[in-house]
Amino acid sequence: MLKPLSLLFSSIIRDGNITFVDASGEAHRFGNGAGQPITVEIADRRLEWHLVLDPEMAAGEGYMSGRLRVTQGSVYDFVALMMRNMAERPLPRYAQRVARLRNRVRRLAQYNPARRAKRNVRHHYDIDPRIYDLFLDPDRQYSCAYFAEPAMSLAEAQAAKKRHIAAKLRLAPGLHVLDIGSGWGGLALYLARASGADVTGITLSEEQIRIARERAAAAALERAPRFELSDYRAVEGTFDRVVSVGMFEHVGLPHYETFFATVARLMAPGGTALIHTIGRTDTPVATNPFIARYIFPGGYIPALSEIMSAVEASGLIVTDVEVLRLHYAETLLAWRRRFLANRQAAVAIAGEEFCRMWEFYLAGSEAAFRFQNFVVFQVQLARRVDTLPITRDYMTAAERALPVGLVQPERPQVIAAGQ
To answer: What pTM value is reported for the model?
Structure first.
Protein backbone atom coordinates (compact mmCIF):
# COMPACT_ATOMS: atom_id res chain seq x y z
CA MET A 1 0.00 0.00 0.00
CA LEU A 2 1.18 3.48 -0.79
CA LYS A 3 2.69 5.09 2.30
CA PRO A 4 0.58 8.28 1.90
CA LEU A 5 -2.58 6.16 1.82
CA SER A 6 -1.51 4.22 4.89
CA LEU A 7 -0.85 7.50 6.71
CA LEU A 8 -4.24 8.82 5.59
CA PHE A 9 -6.09 5.78 6.96
CA SER A 10 -4.04 5.82 10.16
CA SER A 11 -4.86 9.46 10.81
CA ILE A 12 -8.61 8.98 10.29
CA ILE A 13 -9.48 5.46 11.45
CA ARG A 14 -9.10 5.14 15.21
CA ASP A 15 -12.34 3.34 16.06
CA GLY A 16 -13.34 0.08 14.38
CA ASN A 17 -11.81 -3.00 12.80
CA ILE A 18 -11.08 -2.65 9.10
CA THR A 19 -8.54 -4.33 6.85
CA PHE A 20 -7.54 -3.03 3.42
CA VAL A 21 -6.01 -5.50 0.98
CA ASP A 22 -3.86 -3.72 -1.58
CA ALA A 23 -3.25 -4.63 -5.21
CA SER A 24 -0.35 -6.93 -4.29
CA GLY A 25 -2.54 -8.91 -1.88
CA GLU A 26 -0.97 -7.49 1.28
CA ALA A 27 -3.38 -6.85 4.17
CA HIS A 28 -3.24 -3.65 6.28
CA ARG A 29 -5.36 -3.40 9.40
CA PHE A 30 -6.59 -0.12 10.91
CA GLY A 31 -8.60 0.84 13.98
CA ASN A 32 -8.73 -0.35 17.56
CA GLY A 33 -10.24 -3.74 16.74
CA ALA A 34 -13.69 -2.89 18.11
CA GLY A 35 -16.81 -4.05 16.33
CA GLN A 36 -17.38 -6.38 13.43
CA PRO A 37 -14.45 -6.87 11.06
CA ILE A 38 -14.63 -5.26 7.63
CA THR A 39 -12.38 -6.13 4.71
CA VAL A 40 -11.94 -3.95 1.63
CA GLU A 41 -9.91 -4.90 -1.44
CA ILE A 42 -8.28 -2.19 -3.54
CA ALA A 43 -7.73 -3.47 -7.07
CA ASP A 44 -4.86 -1.31 -8.33
CA ARG A 45 -2.27 1.32 -7.47
CA ARG A 46 -4.12 3.96 -9.52
CA LEU A 47 -7.10 3.72 -7.18
CA GLU A 48 -4.74 3.99 -4.19
CA TRP A 49 -3.44 7.30 -5.53
CA HIS A 50 -6.98 8.48 -6.21
CA LEU A 51 -7.92 7.67 -2.61
CA VAL A 52 -4.96 9.68 -1.39
CA LEU A 53 -5.72 12.73 -3.52
CA ASP A 54 -9.53 12.80 -3.42
CA PRO A 55 -10.94 10.21 -0.98
CA GLU A 56 -14.54 11.44 -1.16
CA MET A 57 -14.74 10.90 -4.92
CA ALA A 58 -12.43 7.91 -5.17
CA ALA A 59 -14.30 5.65 -2.74
CA GLY A 60 -17.60 6.01 -4.61
CA GLU A 61 -16.08 5.70 -8.08
CA GLY A 62 -13.96 2.75 -6.98
CA TYR A 63 -16.96 0.88 -5.62
CA MET A 64 -19.09 1.77 -8.64
CA SER A 65 -16.50 0.39 -11.07
CA GLY A 66 -15.77 -2.73 -8.99
CA ARG A 67 -12.18 -1.71 -8.31
CA LEU A 68 -12.96 -1.26 -4.61
CA ARG A 69 -14.65 -4.38 -3.23
CA VAL A 70 -16.04 -4.97 0.24
CA THR A 71 -15.40 -8.67 0.83
CA GLN A 72 -16.25 -8.80 4.54
CA GLY A 73 -19.18 -6.77 5.83
CA SER A 74 -21.24 -4.54 3.54
CA VAL A 75 -20.63 -1.31 1.69
CA TYR A 76 -22.74 0.41 4.35
CA ASP A 77 -20.49 -1.01 7.09
CA PHE A 78 -17.45 0.40 5.27
CA VAL A 79 -18.95 3.84 4.59
CA ALA A 80 -20.42 4.14 8.09
CA LEU A 81 -17.07 3.32 9.72
CA MET A 82 -15.29 5.93 7.63
CA MET A 83 -17.93 8.64 8.22
CA ARG A 84 -18.11 7.92 11.94
CA ASN A 85 -14.36 8.38 12.25
CA MET A 86 -14.27 11.41 9.95
CA ALA A 87 -16.92 13.10 12.09
CA GLU A 88 -14.42 13.08 14.95
CA ARG A 89 -11.17 13.65 13.05
CA PRO A 90 -10.71 16.00 10.12
CA LEU A 91 -9.10 14.97 6.87
CA PRO A 92 -5.40 15.84 6.45
CA ARG A 93 -4.65 19.42 5.51
CA TYR A 94 -4.11 18.72 1.80
CA ALA A 95 -7.52 16.99 1.57
CA GLN A 96 -9.11 19.87 3.46
CA ARG A 97 -7.72 22.22 0.81
CA VAL A 98 -9.55 20.26 -1.90
CA ALA A 99 -12.74 20.48 0.15
CA ARG A 100 -12.29 24.22 0.68
CA LEU A 101 -11.81 24.74 -3.06
CA ARG A 102 -15.06 22.88 -3.77
CA ASN A 103 -16.76 24.96 -1.13
CA ARG A 104 -15.60 28.22 -2.72
CA VAL A 105 -17.00 27.29 -6.14
CA ARG A 106 -20.22 25.72 -4.86
CA ARG A 107 -22.37 28.61 -6.08
CA LEU A 108 -21.11 28.06 -9.63
CA ALA A 109 -21.65 24.30 -9.37
CA GLN A 110 -25.24 24.88 -8.25
CA TYR A 111 -26.16 27.49 -10.84
CA ASN A 112 -29.45 26.03 -12.08
CA PRO A 113 -31.31 28.18 -14.63
CA ALA A 114 -34.46 26.57 -16.03
CA ARG A 115 -32.80 24.60 -18.84
CA ARG A 116 -30.05 23.22 -16.65
CA ALA A 117 -32.53 22.43 -13.87
CA LYS A 118 -34.57 20.32 -16.28
CA ARG A 119 -31.44 18.49 -17.44
CA ASN A 120 -30.49 17.77 -13.83
CA VAL A 121 -33.98 16.41 -13.10
CA ARG A 122 -33.85 14.21 -16.19
CA HIS A 123 -30.54 12.71 -15.01
CA HIS A 124 -32.04 11.33 -11.80
CA TYR A 125 -35.81 11.12 -12.11
CA ASP A 126 -36.28 10.11 -15.74
CA ILE A 127 -34.43 6.81 -15.45
CA ASP A 128 -36.33 3.54 -15.95
CA PRO A 129 -39.27 3.96 -13.54
CA ARG A 130 -39.14 0.30 -12.57
CA ILE A 131 -36.03 1.04 -10.51
CA TYR A 132 -38.09 3.16 -8.11
CA ASP A 133 -40.70 0.41 -7.75
CA LEU A 134 -37.96 -1.81 -6.33
CA PHE A 135 -37.21 0.25 -3.23
CA LEU A 136 -39.82 2.97 -2.62
CA ASP A 137 -43.13 2.44 -0.84
CA PRO A 138 -46.20 1.78 -3.02
CA ASP A 139 -47.07 5.50 -3.06
CA ARG A 140 -43.60 6.31 -4.44
CA GLN A 141 -42.72 8.81 -1.71
CA TYR A 142 -39.11 9.74 -2.47
CA SER A 143 -38.41 11.92 0.57
CA CYS A 144 -37.94 11.56 4.31
CA ALA A 145 -40.67 9.52 6.00
CA TYR A 146 -42.03 10.44 9.43
CA PHE A 147 -41.66 7.65 11.98
CA ALA A 148 -44.23 8.85 14.50
CA GLU A 149 -43.94 5.38 16.07
CA PRO A 150 -40.67 3.42 15.99
CA ALA A 151 -42.34 0.21 14.80
CA MET A 152 -43.89 1.82 11.72
CA SER A 153 -43.34 0.21 8.34
CA LEU A 154 -41.99 2.36 5.52
CA ALA A 155 -45.46 2.73 3.98
CA GLU A 156 -46.96 3.72 7.34
CA ALA A 157 -44.22 6.28 7.99
CA GLN A 158 -44.65 7.81 4.55
CA ALA A 159 -48.40 8.08 5.13
CA ALA A 160 -47.65 9.73 8.48
CA LYS A 161 -45.35 12.21 6.70
CA LYS A 162 -48.13 13.31 4.37
CA ARG A 163 -50.53 13.75 7.28
CA HIS A 164 -47.92 15.68 9.29
CA ILE A 165 -47.39 18.11 6.41
CA ALA A 166 -51.11 18.49 5.75
CA ALA A 167 -51.69 19.43 9.39
CA LYS A 168 -49.19 22.27 9.13
CA LEU A 169 -50.89 23.59 5.99
CA ARG A 170 -54.30 24.02 7.70
CA LEU A 171 -56.19 22.88 4.64
CA ALA A 172 -59.88 23.36 3.92
CA PRO A 173 -62.19 22.49 1.02
CA GLY A 174 -61.76 24.75 -1.97
CA LEU A 175 -58.38 26.21 -1.04
CA HIS A 176 -55.92 26.49 -3.92
CA VAL A 177 -52.71 24.56 -3.21
CA LEU A 178 -49.46 24.54 -5.20
CA ASP A 179 -47.15 21.54 -4.79
CA ILE A 180 -43.69 22.52 -6.08
CA GLY A 181 -41.82 19.40 -7.07
CA SER A 182 -44.82 17.09 -6.93
CA GLY A 183 -42.98 13.91 -7.88
CA TRP A 184 -45.21 10.99 -8.78
CA GLY A 185 -48.22 12.75 -7.30
CA GLY A 186 -48.68 10.99 -3.98
CA LEU A 187 -48.73 14.06 -1.74
CA ALA A 188 -51.00 16.05 -4.07
CA LEU A 189 -53.45 13.15 -4.23
CA TYR A 190 -53.47 12.86 -0.44
CA LEU A 191 -54.03 16.59 0.09
CA ALA A 192 -56.90 16.64 -2.40
CA ARG A 193 -58.50 13.52 -0.99
CA ALA A 194 -58.09 14.47 2.67
CA SER A 195 -59.27 18.08 2.44
CA GLY A 196 -61.14 18.71 -0.77
CA ALA A 197 -58.58 21.34 -1.70
CA ASP A 198 -57.87 22.28 -5.31
CA VAL A 199 -54.27 21.06 -5.82
CA THR A 200 -51.86 21.83 -8.65
CA GLY A 201 -48.56 19.94 -8.79
CA ILE A 202 -45.55 20.94 -10.87
CA THR A 203 -42.47 18.95 -11.81
CA LEU A 204 -39.75 19.03 -14.47
CA SER A 205 -39.70 15.23 -14.85
CA GLU A 206 -41.43 13.75 -17.89
CA GLU A 207 -41.68 10.34 -16.23
CA GLN A 208 -43.07 11.70 -12.98
CA ILE A 209 -45.77 13.80 -14.62
CA ARG A 210 -46.86 10.92 -16.83
CA ILE A 211 -47.37 8.67 -13.82
CA ALA A 212 -48.91 11.43 -11.67
CA ARG A 213 -51.51 12.20 -14.32
CA GLU A 214 -52.35 8.52 -14.69
CA ARG A 215 -52.81 8.24 -10.93
CA ALA A 216 -54.99 11.35 -10.79
CA ALA A 217 -57.24 10.00 -13.54
CA ALA A 218 -57.52 6.63 -11.82
CA ALA A 219 -58.36 8.21 -8.44
CA ALA A 220 -61.63 9.61 -9.83
CA LEU A 221 -61.77 12.36 -7.19
CA GLU A 222 -64.34 15.13 -7.37
CA ARG A 223 -61.41 17.57 -7.17
CA ALA A 224 -58.57 15.64 -8.78
CA PRO A 225 -55.11 17.28 -8.66
CA ARG A 226 -53.76 18.83 -11.84
CA PHE A 227 -50.15 18.21 -12.79
CA GLU A 228 -48.11 20.52 -14.99
CA LEU A 229 -44.65 20.25 -16.48
CA SER A 230 -43.26 23.56 -15.28
CA ASP A 231 -40.32 25.27 -13.64
CA TYR A 232 -41.34 26.96 -10.39
CA ARG A 233 -40.17 30.32 -11.75
CA ALA A 234 -42.70 30.12 -14.60
CA VAL A 235 -45.81 29.52 -12.46
CA GLU A 236 -48.49 32.20 -12.47
CA GLY A 237 -51.53 32.69 -10.27
CA THR A 238 -52.37 32.97 -6.60
CA PHE A 239 -52.44 30.09 -4.12
CA ASP A 240 -53.70 29.82 -0.55
CA ARG A 241 -51.11 27.18 0.27
CA VAL A 242 -47.69 26.37 -1.15
CA VAL A 243 -45.90 23.15 -0.28
CA SER A 244 -42.58 21.77 -1.46
CA VAL A 245 -41.20 18.43 -0.30
CA GLY A 246 -37.74 17.25 -1.32
CA MET A 247 -37.39 19.79 -4.13
CA PHE A 248 -35.49 22.64 -2.44
CA GLU A 249 -32.32 20.51 -2.51
CA HIS A 250 -32.39 20.97 -6.32
CA VAL A 251 -32.94 24.73 -6.39
CA GLY A 252 -29.26 25.64 -6.21
CA LEU A 253 -27.66 28.11 -3.83
CA PRO A 254 -27.59 31.07 -6.27
CA HIS A 255 -31.37 30.80 -6.69
CA TYR A 256 -32.53 30.74 -3.06
CA GLU A 257 -33.72 34.35 -3.06
CA THR A 258 -35.53 33.77 -6.37
CA PHE A 259 -37.22 30.67 -4.95
CA PHE A 260 -38.59 32.40 -1.86
CA ALA A 261 -39.48 35.55 -3.82
CA THR A 262 -41.49 33.28 -6.12
CA VAL A 263 -43.24 31.65 -3.16
CA ALA A 264 -44.10 35.12 -1.82
CA ARG A 265 -45.37 36.22 -5.24
CA LEU A 266 -47.63 33.19 -5.61
CA MET A 267 -48.98 33.15 -2.06
CA ALA A 268 -52.29 34.82 -1.21
CA PRO A 269 -52.13 37.47 1.55
CA GLY A 270 -53.49 35.03 4.13
CA GLY A 271 -51.53 32.12 2.72
CA THR A 272 -49.21 29.57 4.29
CA ALA A 273 -46.24 27.65 2.90
CA LEU A 274 -44.37 24.58 4.10
CA ILE A 275 -40.88 23.81 2.78
CA HIS A 276 -39.56 20.33 3.61
CA THR A 277 -35.87 19.97 2.76
CA ILE A 278 -32.73 18.11 3.72
CA GLY A 279 -30.39 20.41 5.61
CA ARG A 280 -27.26 20.41 7.69
CA THR A 281 -26.76 21.47 11.28
CA ASP A 282 -23.22 22.79 10.82
CA THR A 283 -21.70 25.42 8.54
CA PRO A 284 -22.18 25.39 4.75
CA VAL A 285 -20.20 22.72 2.90
CA ALA A 286 -20.06 21.80 -0.80
CA THR A 287 -22.02 18.80 -2.06
CA ASN A 288 -20.21 15.47 -1.84
CA PRO A 289 -18.43 15.18 -5.22
CA PHE A 290 -19.63 11.63 -5.94
CA ILE A 291 -23.25 12.62 -5.28
CA ALA A 292 -22.86 15.80 -7.35
CA ARG A 293 -21.43 13.96 -10.37
CA TYR A 294 -23.43 10.74 -10.45
CA ILE A 295 -26.61 11.13 -8.42
CA PHE A 296 -27.88 14.72 -8.05
CA PRO A 297 -26.06 17.12 -10.39
CA GLY A 298 -26.78 20.67 -9.30
CA GLY A 299 -27.95 19.47 -5.88
CA TYR A 300 -27.02 21.10 -2.60
CA ILE A 301 -27.78 20.53 1.09
CA PRO A 302 -28.18 23.92 2.78
CA ALA A 303 -27.38 25.09 6.26
CA LEU A 304 -30.33 26.70 8.01
CA SER A 305 -28.53 30.07 7.89
CA GLU A 306 -28.52 29.95 4.07
CA ILE A 307 -32.26 29.28 3.98
CA MET A 308 -33.12 31.99 6.48
CA SER A 309 -31.17 34.76 4.80
CA ALA A 310 -33.11 34.11 1.59
CA VAL A 311 -36.43 33.99 3.46
CA GLU A 312 -35.65 37.33 5.09
CA ALA A 313 -35.00 38.89 1.70
CA SER A 314 -38.39 37.70 0.43
CA GLY A 315 -40.44 39.44 3.10
CA LEU A 316 -42.01 36.17 4.23
CA ILE A 317 -42.39 35.43 7.95
CA VAL A 318 -41.03 32.25 9.50
CA THR A 319 -43.86 30.87 11.63
CA ASP A 320 -42.43 27.49 12.57
CA VAL A 321 -39.31 25.36 12.11
CA GLU A 322 -39.18 21.66 12.92
CA VAL A 323 -36.02 19.58 12.71
CA LEU A 324 -36.52 15.89 11.92
CA ARG A 325 -33.53 14.00 13.29
CA LEU A 326 -32.74 10.43 12.16
CA HIS A 327 -36.07 10.02 10.37
CA TYR A 328 -34.25 10.10 7.03
CA ALA A 329 -31.64 7.63 8.26
CA GLU A 330 -34.44 5.15 8.99
CA THR A 331 -36.07 5.92 5.64
CA LEU A 332 -32.82 5.25 3.79
CA LEU A 333 -32.28 2.05 5.75
CA ALA A 334 -35.66 0.81 4.55
CA TRP A 335 -34.90 1.84 0.96
CA ARG A 336 -31.49 0.16 1.03
CA ARG A 337 -32.88 -3.09 2.37
CA ARG A 338 -35.62 -3.14 -0.24
CA PHE A 339 -33.18 -2.36 -3.05
CA LEU A 340 -30.83 -5.15 -1.98
CA ALA A 341 -33.75 -7.58 -1.72
CA ASN A 342 -34.54 -6.79 -5.36
CA ARG A 343 -30.99 -6.36 -6.57
CA GLN A 344 -31.18 -9.11 -9.18
CA ALA A 345 -34.15 -7.39 -10.82
CA ALA A 346 -32.31 -4.06 -10.65
CA VAL A 347 -29.27 -5.52 -12.43
CA ALA A 348 -31.54 -6.91 -15.15
CA ILE A 349 -33.09 -3.46 -15.64
CA ALA A 350 -30.08 -1.14 -15.34
CA GLY A 351 -26.89 -3.19 -15.18
CA GLU A 352 -24.30 -4.01 -12.53
CA GLU A 353 -22.45 -0.69 -12.53
CA PHE A 354 -25.67 1.27 -12.02
CA CYS A 355 -26.62 -0.98 -9.10
CA ARG A 356 -23.25 -0.54 -7.44
CA MET A 357 -23.58 3.23 -7.89
CA TRP A 358 -27.07 3.14 -6.36
CA GLU A 359 -25.93 0.96 -3.45
CA PHE A 360 -23.15 3.42 -2.64
CA TYR A 361 -25.57 6.35 -2.88
CA LEU A 362 -28.10 4.77 -0.49
CA ALA A 363 -25.42 3.56 1.94
CA GLY A 364 -23.56 6.88 1.94
CA SER A 365 -26.74 8.89 2.36
CA GLU A 366 -27.89 6.80 5.32
CA ALA A 367 -24.50 7.11 6.99
CA ALA A 368 -24.52 10.88 6.40
CA PHE A 369 -27.77 11.21 8.33
CA ARG A 370 -26.38 9.13 11.18
CA PHE A 371 -22.88 10.60 11.44
CA GLN A 372 -22.48 13.75 9.30
CA ASN A 373 -24.86 16.40 10.70
CA PHE A 374 -27.63 15.87 8.13
CA VAL A 375 -31.25 16.44 9.19
CA VAL A 376 -34.54 17.50 7.59
CA PHE A 377 -35.98 20.98 8.08
CA GLN A 378 -39.70 21.72 7.83
CA VAL A 379 -39.97 25.49 7.55
CA GLN A 380 -43.44 27.02 7.74
CA LEU A 381 -43.94 30.48 6.25
CA ALA A 382 -46.66 33.11 6.01
CA ARG A 383 -47.07 36.62 4.65
CA ARG A 384 -48.88 37.99 7.70
CA VAL A 385 -48.02 37.61 11.35
CA ASP A 386 -51.64 36.83 12.28
CA THR A 387 -52.25 34.15 9.64
CA LEU A 388 -51.87 31.18 12.01
CA PRO A 389 -52.79 30.44 15.64
CA ILE A 390 -50.19 31.65 18.11
CA THR A 391 -49.57 28.20 19.61
CA ARG A 392 -48.66 24.94 17.87
CA ASP A 393 -51.62 23.04 19.37
CA TYR A 394 -53.60 23.39 16.14
CA MET A 395 -51.03 21.22 14.33
CA THR A 396 -51.52 18.30 16.71
CA ALA A 397 -55.30 18.62 16.63
CA ALA A 398 -55.36 18.76 12.83
CA GLU A 399 -52.99 15.81 12.52
CA ARG A 400 -55.23 13.65 14.71
CA ALA A 401 -58.29 14.62 12.68
CA LEU A 402 -56.78 13.91 9.27
CA PRO A 403 -57.12 10.48 7.65
CA VAL A 404 -53.99 8.35 7.66
CA GLY A 405 -54.45 7.55 3.99
CA LEU A 406 -54.26 4.28 2.16
CA VAL A 407 -51.35 2.21 3.44
CA GLN A 408 -50.70 -0.57 0.97
CA PRO A 409 -48.79 -3.83 1.62
CA GLU A 410 -45.18 -3.23 2.53
CA ARG A 411 -43.47 -5.85 0.37
CA PRO A 412 -42.22 -4.27 -2.86
CA GLN A 413 -43.10 -5.80 -6.18
CA VAL A 414 -40.22 -7.53 -7.94
CA ILE A 415 -40.32 -6.49 -11.58
CA ALA A 416 -38.58 -8.59 -14.18
CA ALA A 417 -36.49 -6.86 -16.79
CA GLY A 418 -38.85 -7.73 -19.64
CA GLN A 419 -41.96 -6.34 -17.92
So the answer is: 0.93
